[in-house]
Specification:
The protein is α+β, with helices and mostly antiparallel strands. It contains 5 helices and 19 strands. The N and C termini lie far apart (48 Å).
């Protein structure tokens, strides 16, 4: 197996650092799936998918070389501590000139980050970080593949994440649970109910992308406010579109697209009332 890549664009390095920092806030460990065309970050919770983030390697890297376990299965799966991965990229915030990432063996498998800080001074400066990784065996791959996409009862566009984030952050201070609902009239509702109040926010005239139910009733699910708020951190990507998919009283799946190079799938299981 072989993997090495290089980033040189300051904006791209900033985006990549923001992405990894956001992932590190979601879970202690993360699985990275490498293919010739894509990087896929997978975060799970007790074998339940939480995040599947797919990134085009052509957007991020000026150099990208990988070869998997075989020609037929040209894939590599790595597991690592997300916070350590994120800390290794902190130097990129200081306008580094470039960074090389490669799979190495230093008594144990590692992702090695060679960061060129020459742009900060006349003298050449290098910074190297090693992040220990676990190579996931082929028999474990099915546990880390893209989950089956359920047929949801409704799929609706949602407003700007920045607006939603402002609202949900306030709701988070009042309740741990939130009711999210949508209908075929293009209405999305966020509601919390506590002993002393009921707070509801309405969004209207949204585009309904899919509706499996003929009746005009609302499709809803009760979810964790904290988990919803965590997804809203992805506003750093300035997405082109975000969709909310609801399976009645079972799951909310949020899908984010940023150009042709980033796609985020985020799963929030419903809370059974």
């Amino acid at each position: 197996m072989k993997f090495k890549c290089r980033m040189m664009d300051a904006g791209v390095m900033r985006d990549f650092t923001n992405i990894v920092n956001t992932i590190s806030q979601m879970a202690k460990y993360c699985v990275l799936r490498l293919t010739p065309d894509e990087l896929c970050f997978n975060v799970g919770d007790e074998r339940t998918p939480v995040l599947w983030a797919v990134f085009s390697q052509q957007y991020f890297f000026t150099e990208y070389v990988m070869s998997g376990v075989s020609e037929e299965e040209n894939v590599i799966y790595l597991e690592f501590e997300a916070s350590m991965f994120a800390r290794s990229l902190n130097s990129l915030k200081a306008t580094a000139k470039s960074v090389k990432i490669k799979l190495t063996n230093k008594r144990q498998p590692c992702l090695t980050f060679d960061i060129d800080l020459s742009s900060l001074s006349i003298d050449s400066r290098q910074c190297t970080h090693d992040v220990p990784v676990k190579l996931i065996s082929r028999k474990e791959w099915p546990e880390h593949k893209m989950p089956d996409i359920l047929e949801f009862d409704i799929s609706i566009e949602i407003p700007q994440l920045k607006r939603l984030r402002h609202i949900v952050d306030r709701m988070k201070n009042m309740s741990s649970q939130l009711i999210i609902s949508a209908n075929k009239r293009g209405e999305l509702t966020l509601k919390i109910e506590v002993d002393f109040a009921t707070v509801t926010t309405y969004f209207k005239n949204l585009q309904v992308l899919e509706n499996r139910l003929e009746e005009a009733s609302d499709i809803c699910a009760i979810v964790s406010v904290k988990k919803l708020a965590m997804f809203l951190n992805w506003d750093i990507l300035h997405p082109d579109s975000v969709k909310c998919n609801i399976l009645q009283e079972k799951m909310v799946k949020l899908t984010l697209d940023a150009g042709d190079y980033i796609k985020i799938h985020y799963f929030i299981p419903a809370i059974i009332s």
